[in-house]
Amino acid sequence: MRRAGFGPATAFTLLLAAGGLGGCAVADAAGQAVQRRLQDPAVERVFPGAPRDVYSSVRAAVTRLGYRVVRGSAAQGELEAVSVVGAGLDPGSSRQLVLRVRLSAAEAGTMVRLRVAEVREADSSRRAGHATEVPLPPGPRHEALFAEWERELTAQKSR
């Protein structure tokens, strides 16, 4: 007489299939999180003036705001600057802002492309060098930097 139901091999196969389908939601959510992080968080603005003049304004303003320029030049059309290392939210942690600026000639002047990221180190006293860089979405910090650069450019033109 034959038993009704599933055999052990069939039950195992169905269990694997159900587990695989159940994991799709998790994989999809993880994929969306990765996709959000990979999206370009750059903000662009066009400033009046030649790229070299706009670069010198950006560099002067960034330096005045307390950032240290670590890479780039007017000829490269790039500038990378870092803030001072500050205390993070957790004890022993640290954080630092990184500005990445690209400049290129545009019809009405110079296109400035700004990316801001935060470098976080969870426990800088015990695990030095294990930092994570998180791109910051466009927001008030970007707008404040652009406003400062605009003021510096205006000031340089009036000199």
What does this structure look like?
40% of the residues lie in helices and 31% in strands. The chain has 159 residues and is an alpha+beta fold. The chain folds into 2 domains: 1-39; 41-158, Alpha-D-Glucose-1,6-Bisphosphate, Chain A, domain 4, CATH 3.30.530. Strands 1, 2, 3, 4, 5, 6 and 7 form a 7-stranded antiparallel β-sheet that branches. The longest helix is centred in the first third of the chain and has 31 residues, at 8-38. The radius of gyration is 25 Å and the shape is extended.
The rough form would be described as: extended
The total strand number stands at 7
Question: Roughly how many Å apart are the termini?
Answer: 101 Å
Number of helical regions: 3
The pLDDT mean sits at 81
Low-confidence stretches: none
**Which CATH C-level class of the largest domain is it?**
Alpha Beta
- Give the count of structural domains: 2
Radius of gyration: 25 Å
The CATH topology of the largest domain comes to Alpha-D-Glucose-1,6-Bisphosphate, Chain A, domain 4
Structure classification: alpha+beta
**Main sheet record:** 7 strands, antiparallel
The CATH architecture assignment of the largest domain turns out to be: 2-Layer Sandwich
**What is the ordering of alpha helices and beta strands?**
HEHEEEEEEH
User: How much of the polypeptide forms β-strand, as a percent range?
Assistant: 25-35%
Helix fraction?
40-55%
